[in-house]
Design a protein that fits this description.
Elements: E1 7-11, H1 18-27, E2 31-36, E3 44-45, H2 51-61, E4 65-68, H3 80-99, E5 107-111, H4 137-151, E6 158-163, E7 165-167, H5 176-186, E8 190-192, E9 198-203, H6 204-216, E10 223-226, E11 231-233, H7 234-245, E12 251-253, E13 265-266, H8 271-277, H9 285-304
Parallel strand pairs: 1-2, 1-4, 2-3, 4-5, 5-6, 6-10, 7-9, 8-12, 9-13
Antiparallel strand pairs: 9-11
Helix pairs in contact: 1-6, 2-3, 3-4, 5-7, 5-9, 7-9
């Protein structure tokens, strides 16, 4: 049970992160109201690009905490207008709307991304004070979102998070790990990018735990990485999936999936985050993959039933 029950307004409640987070917050004793484009996928409908609609929703809900998960999260999305409109203008509208109710808010949590950082020049863990210089439009949109948030930082209790990669059951198949899991479960060959690079992967349960703690114990004005602190070679993920599923498939490198001058290792530092909210559980990549294989196998079995 949380130390203090909050009334949480959460955007993106039907997302990969939103679904388990809503459940966890409610289990903690918080009241959670989700807002999205349509009732059904959310408790309340509102256009997140319209500050007047946001003001109306906040006035009705009277939240004491806001978590803004609604965003374009798939980095290769090349629809520039959609990326910037959603990630920057959408956040600006939400914050403008929230400003009218600043006195009742204990926490406003804004997920950014580790892609705001410049490509690393060493294998050292990236800390929050590392150079910001995104290499793609997704990262640029998140950096712009952070800059917008700074304009409201004197009025709102904003905390920014910068998640590195994270995965788990329920993540969309367009992302690398669930794509690979689906291929191994089905025993089907798949096209991949560079498997000789190492990246930082957290489990979705760890990310949810971070947001649970930040709601119960807000850290306004702070920016935190969310990461495991452990680099994982992408080729090792494939080898683990081969062991877990006992399936051998062919992985073909598709040049269109390989980014030029891709850093060999990208790993984050979680030192600042854990100093602020305590040590975090981290299942490890094998346990995460096992849970994803079990989930994908169940879905495949259910879909094949007459």
């Amino acid at each position: 049970m949380a130390f203090r029950s909050e009334r949480v307004l959460l955007t993106g409640g039907d997302s990969f992160t939103g679904r388990p987070l809503v459940e966890a917050l409610r289990q903690d004793g918080h009241e959670v109201v989700t807002v999205g484009r349509h009732v059904g996928e959310a408790d309340m409908a509102a256009d997140l690009l319209d500050p007047d609609e946001i003001i109306g929703v906040i006035d009705q809900v009277k939240p004491t905490a806001i978590i803004h998960l609604a965003a374009i999260t798939f980095a290769p999305d090349q629809n520039f207008h959609r990326i910037y409109t959603t990630n920057v203008s959408g956040t600006a509208s939400l914050l403008k709307g929230a400003r009218a109710f600043a006195g009742q808010l204990n926490a406003v949590i804004l997920p950014s991304s580790a892609r705001v950082y410049a490509p690393p020049i060493s294998d050292d863990p990236i800390q929050e004070d590392y150079l910001l210089s995104p290499a793609d439009h997704y990262g640029a949109s998140k950096m712009a979102m952070e800059r917008v948030a700074q304009l409201f930082s004197n009025e709102l209790p904003i905390t920014i998070t910068r998640p590195f990669n994270y995965t788990g059951p329920g993540q969309a198949a367009q992302f690398f790990v669930p794509k690979l899991v689906a291929a191994y479960v089905a025993g089907e060959d798949v096209r991949v990018g560079n498997l000789h690079v190492a990246r930082d992967f957290s489990d979705i349960t760890t990310v949810v735990e971070v947001y649970r703690r930040l709601v119960s114990s807000p850290k306004p004005g702070e920016t935190f990485n969310i990461c495991s602190g452990q680099p994982v070679l992408l080729g090792d993920i494939a080898r683990l999936l081969e062991e877990i599923t006992d399936n051998r498939i062919t992985l073909t490198v598709d040049p269109s999936f390989v980014r030029p001058d891709e850093p060999r290792v990208i790993v984050g530092s979680k030192r600042k985050l854990e100093a602020a909210i305590g040590a975090l559980p981290e299942p490890g990549i094998r346990m995460t993959l096992e849970s994803m294989v079990a989930s994908a196998s169940f879905v495949a079995a259910e879909s094949s039933r007459p």
